[in-house]
Specification:
- The protein is of the alpha+beta class and 152 residues long.
- The protein has a single domain, classed as 2-Layer Sandwich (Alpha-D-Glucose-1,6-Bisphosphate, Chain A, domain 4).
- It has 3 helices and 8 strands, in the order βαββββββααβ.
- Strands 1, 2, 3, 4, 5, 6, 7 and 8 form an 8-stranded antiparallel sheet that branches.
- Strand 3 and strand 4 form a beta hairpin.
- The protein starts with a strand and ends with a strand.
Length: 152
C-alpha cells in the first residue's frame, strides 16, 4: 500500500486543532472529494467520496484516540486504508501530521498514486484544514473520548 505522510503547522492551540479533527462530519468542508462522513458511534464512521472519477463508500473503525495527541483508524469494509493523525504543540501553534496507507483500485488510482496525486491531495486537505480552523479561531465541536486499541 502507498504510504503518505504530510505535516502542517496550524496557528491554534493543540486542543483546538484536535477538537476540530474529531468533528468527522465536518471533513467535507476541507477534504477534497469527501462527500459525507457519518459518525455511527464513538468508534465507527461511514465514508462517501468521489475520486479518480469513481464513487467510493467504506466503513472505518477508530483504533486509537488520545485527546490532544492522536486519532488512528483502519478500514473495516470497503476501501482499504489505515492511518493516523498526530497533534504536537509547537512554537506558536500545533503541528498536525497525517500518516496514511491505502490500496489504490484500478489503473487510474494506481497511476495517480505513482504520480504523487494522493500525496498532493493530503497536503491540500491539510492546507484547507489550516485555513478552516485558523479563520474560525475555534472548533465547531469536540469529542474528548479516549479509545485505546482495537475493539475486542
Amino acid at each position: 500500500m502507498p504510504a503518505i505522510e504530510q505535516s502542517i503547522q496550524v496557528d491554534v492551540p493543540v486542543r483546538t486543532a484536535y477538537n476540530q479533527w474529531t468533528q468527522f462530519e465536518e471533513f467535507p468542508r476541507f477534504m477534497e472529494g469527501i462527500e459525507r462522513v457519518e459518525q455511527r458511534d464513538d468508534r465507527h464512521l461511514h465514508w462517501v467520496a468521489e475520486f479518480g472519477g469513481k464513487h467510493h463508500e467504506w466503513d472505518a473503525e477508530i483504533t486509537d484516540q488520545t485527546p490532544d495527541r492522536r486519532v488512528a483508524w483502519r478500514d473495516v469494509e470497503g476501501k482499504t486504508n489505515e492511518g493516523s493523525v498526530d497533534f504536537e504543540q509547537s512554537d506558536g501553534g500545533t503541528c498536525v501530521t497525517v500518516r496514511m496507507d491505502w490500496e489504490p483500485e484500478g489503473a487510474a488510482e494506481k497511476i495517480g498514486s505513482a504520480l504523487g496525486f494522493d500525496e498532493r491531495r493530503v497536503k491540500s486537505d491539510l492546507e484547507r484544514f489550516k485555513e478552516f480552523i485558523e479563520s474560525r479561531g475555534e472548533e465547531t465541536g469536540a469529542w474528548r473520548g479516549d479509545i485505546g486499541g482495537p475493539q475486542a
